[in-house]
Amino acid sequence: MKKKKRVVYSSDLGKLCPDCRRPEKYCICRERAKDAKPKNTDGIVRVGRSTKGRKGAGVTVVTGLPLSEKDLKALAKKLKAKCGSGGTIKDGVIEIQGEHRDKLVVELEKLGYTVKKSGG
C-alpha cells in the first residue's frame, strides 16, 4: 500500500498545517482548540433523558456545560463513576447510559452549577 504524500511547505504559502492543510496563519485546527468552550450557553446546565435513535434504550443527557473538551471528559468520567454506568461525549454533550437524572442533578449542584431537569 502506497502512502499519500502531503505538502507540508509551500513557497507561496509558507508552512502548512498537517491536519487541515491550510497555511499556518489560517489554520482552523488551532482556532478550534482555542475556542473549545461553547459560546451559546446561558449558564444553566440541563439534565434530560433521551431515547432517540437508541431503539428505546434511554440515556441521561447533560447539556449546557461551559467546559473545554478536556474538562468535559474529566467531568464525564466522574459522573459515570458516580452512576456506575457507561457513557460518552458527543458534540459537547455528556450521555450517560440509563436513567440517572436525580443523581446527576444533585452531583452537579454540589459542583456549583445551576441545574434544571429537562424533558419528560
The stretches of 5 or more residues where confidence is low (pLDDT under 50) are none
Separation, N- and C-terminal Cα atoms: 52 Å
Shape: elongated
Output the strand order for the largest sheet: 5-6-4-3-7
Second-tier CATH architecture of the largest domain? 2-Layer Sandwich
Topology:
Elements: E1 9-10, E2 14-15, H1 28-34, E3 44-50, E4 59-63, H2 69-83, E5 87-90, E6 93-97, H3 101-110, E7 114-117
Parallel strand pairs: 3-7
Antiparallel strand pairs: 1-2, 3-4, 4-6, 5-6
What do these coordinates show?
It is a single chain. This protein is an alpha+beta fold. The chain folds into 2 domains: 7-36, no CATH class; 44-117, 2-Layer Sandwich (Translation Initiation Factor Eif1). 27% of the residues lie in helices and 24% in strands. It has helices at 28-34, 69-83, 101-110; strands at 9-10, 14-15, 44-50, 59-63, 87-90, 93-97, 114-117. A 5-stranded mixed beta sheet has the order 5-6-4-3-7, with helices on one face. Strand 3 and strand 4 (59-63) form a beta hairpin. The chain is elongated, with a radius of gyration of 19 Å. 14% of the residues are buried. The model has no long low-confidence stretch (mean pLDDT 80).
Keywords:
120 residues; alpha+beta; Translation Initiation Factor Eif1; 2 domains; two-stranded antiparallel sheet; 3 helices; elongated
Could you write a compact summary of the structure shown?
The protein has 120 residues and is of the alpha+beta class. It has three helices and seven strands; from the N terminus they run E-E-H-E-E-H-E-E-H-E. It has two domains: 7-36, no CATH class; 44-117, SUI1-like domain (Translation Initiation Factor Eif1).
